[in-house]
Write a structure and sequence with these properties.
Blueprint: E1 12-13, E2 20-23, E3 37-40, E4 43-52, E5 55-58, E6 62-63
Antiparallel strand pairs: 1-2, 2-5, 3-4, 4-5, 4-6
Length: 65
């Protein structure tokens, strides 16, 4: 089984039911890419685009129970 990489440094901002995540240094450091899973607490969503170093686009996510 392949271990999953995790990135948990920095800050984020996403509105309720939003699909844009604003945060710190996504792409230039090679931290995330399309198809990765964005998770914050019990909320998770698929990353559909990394538009620049500070913005991600995600699918409408859902809280896991």
């Amino acid at each position: 089984m392949t271990a999953l990489n995790s990135y948990s440094t920095g800050t984020i901002d996403v509105t309720a039911d939003g699909t844009t995540v604003t945060g710190t240094i996504w792409s230039s450091a090679g931290n995330v890419k399309s198809g990765d899973i964005f998770q914050n607490g019990r909320f998770s969503a698929t990353i559909t685009d990394v538009t620049d170093d500070t913005h991600l686009v995600i699918t409408p996510g859902r809280a896991r129970h």
